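Subgroup meeting minutes
Present: P.N., E.W., G.H.
Scribe: E.W.

1. P.N. recapped why we're keeping a running log of single-chain structure predictions: easier to compare across weeks, and new members can see raw inputs and outputs side by side.
2. G.H. added today's entry (378 aa).
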Amino acid sequence: MTVTETEPISPARDGLCEFPGVNCPNPKVQDAGASGRPPKYCGLEGPGVDGKLVIHNKATAWSAKKAAERRPVRAAGGAGSVPPLPAGPVTTARTTLENQMLELPRRLDQLQEFLTGITAAVRAYGDAEAVAAEVEQLQASSRAQVAEVERQRGEEEHRRRQAEQLAADAEDAREEADAAAQDAFEELESARAEALAALTAAEKARQDAVSARESAAAEVEQAHQEMQAAQEAATAQAEELRLDTERRIAEIQSAAELQIQQARTEVEVARIAQATAESERQTAQQTADQLRTELRELRDQHRAELESLRAEHRADRDQLRTDHQAQLADIRQAAADRVAAATMAQRAAEQSAETLRDQLTATQAAQAAPTIEEAETA
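Output recorded in log:
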């Protein structure tokens, strides 16, 4: 076992963080009722075995234990192993003070936040504007409640007036109902008298109806006899009409047969005429085919003659073009010869003119020489 594991926990540190190698003043993390071993560390940031700040939890505690186990081995590499001295109360107090001084900034920040919240609450409680706004809000709410009460009171007054109006209307309706009942009673009496008169009239009408029924029975019997006589007459008339109809049907059938015979004759004549027309049509078709063949032959003959004429015309045109080109070449050659002759004549004329010009110059010089000599002599 290591020294850290064998160190007993003092009663004064019961409930505090058990991070190895240091005396952490923070309490352990509260157990939330989870299964397993209860927490032994605070879970806050604090000094480690090497003096650096670490989070006090299971992982860093395991690393701290391993570092504490390696420390005696490193010390054994020196002159010899020295047993650690027990920590006195001053050392413990100094370590506790150092830990508390390390925790002091965090606690001061928490205190600052707490005091800031208290200051804000006090400021809000003593703020005159907030009080005035709240009073104004309460007054507005009171006015709204008063307005609501006034509105409800007005509605109650309106309902009361409506009830009074309904009561007055009901009274008027009751009076009208009484008057209507009186009128109905009077009308009932009048209707009763009229009903008695109607019963009397109905009895008289019944008696008249009995008399009328007896008279009607006699009339019905007479009508039956007349109907039977009319039926017999109608039967005789129908028989006569049937005979007349059969006679007319026979006449119509005879006329129809005659017309059918005539129609058959006309159809036969038409068929013969159609056959004749068909024969004539075939003859005309043959004639037309023959004429079409002759026309086609004439067209081919004319086309051949036209092609021959075109070939002859093309040959004549080519010959004329050749002759024209030859004549044009001759004319061009003659023109070129004439131009060459004219050019040669022009050159000869120019040479003659140059010769004459030289001779004239020489003659003028010869004539002018004696004159110059005479002038010099003089």
